Amino acid sequence: MALNAPQKTAAQLVGVVVVMGALAWASVPFYDWFCRVTGFGGTTGVATAGSDEILEKTIKVRFDGSKDRGMPWEFKPVVREMEIKIGETGLAFYEAYNPTDRPIAGQASYNVTPYAAGAFFEKIACFCFEEQVLQPGERVQMPVTFFVDPEIVDDRDGKYVHTITLSYTFYEIDLPEGYATLETGENTGAVSNMN
After folding, report:
1. What is the mean pLDDT of the chain?
2. Are 123 and 47 in contact (CB under 8 A)?
3. What was the pLDDT predicted at 25?
4. CA distance 124 to 90
5. Membrane topology type, per the record (predicted)?
6. What spatial distance separates the first Cα and last Cα of the chain, rounded to whole Å?
7. Which of 54, 58, 61, 143 lies at 20 to 30 Å from 184 by C-alpha?
8. C-alpha to C-alpha distance for 12 and 14, rounded to whole angstroms
9. pLDDT by residue (tens digit) across 148-162?
10. Pick from 123, 120, 124: nearest CA to 159
């Protein structure tokens, strides 16, 4: 049975909508993958160990912390700036405090500026790799271990970078299963495994 012109047009429009929806759905994970591979948009790399090469040249790393609107925690870097050798492993801490009377889960998003440095900023371990849960009144210091890849000095844009800013934004997420039934104030040791 052949379709008449209006039916054919309607079928084509439905097809276009389905294809556009599929592309939109796939674009988020693809963009995330692209940013992680290239450092585009200030996305950092992830390393399993420190650099094998440490240069005499130093670079400043600044730390910034913010919260999403509605996130009740207090959140800030413990130290605002450090200077390290390129390739040297650095360790910085951020402090979070839950001033409420209920457990709150949070997840941190992050980026690096200038964007040219994103591909060369390597995290070895970070609190941002997993969700965090703070009990009522709990205050914790959360570490991030990192280095700046020595290849930055040979990069067309990266070689002009003298200061890198690592920024985190914490936003509230749903509590993991099991936390909703806990008594207020009960300490489960959930933050003891932060890395």
Report:
1. 82
2. yes
3. 53
4. 10
5. Single-pass type II membrane protein
6. 63
7. 143
8. 5
9. 999 999 999 899 999
10. 120
Please give the pLDDT value at position 91: 97
Q: Which residue has the tokens 């933050």?
A: 191
- Give the SS3 label for residue 189: coil
Query: Whole-angstrom Cα distance, residue 121 to residue 42?
Result: 9
Indicate the helix (H) or strand (E) that contains 32. Answer: helix 5-38
Residue 6 CA: distances (Å) to CA of 13, 15, 16, 123: 11, 14, 15, 56
Average pLDDT of the segment spanning 87-112: 95
Structure token digits, residue 119? 């591909």
Chain-centroid distance, C-alpha 13: 38
DSSP state of 130: S
Whole-angstrom distance, CA of residue 36 vs CA of residue 30: 10
**Under 8 Å CB-to-CB from 65, ≥6 apart: which residues?**
75, 76, 77, 94, 167, 168, 169, 170
Q: How far apart are CA 110 and CA 92, in angstroms?
A: 14
Q: Which residue has the higher pLDDT, 116 or 138?
A: 138
pLDDT at position 17: 67
Contact 103, 131 (CB under 8 A): no
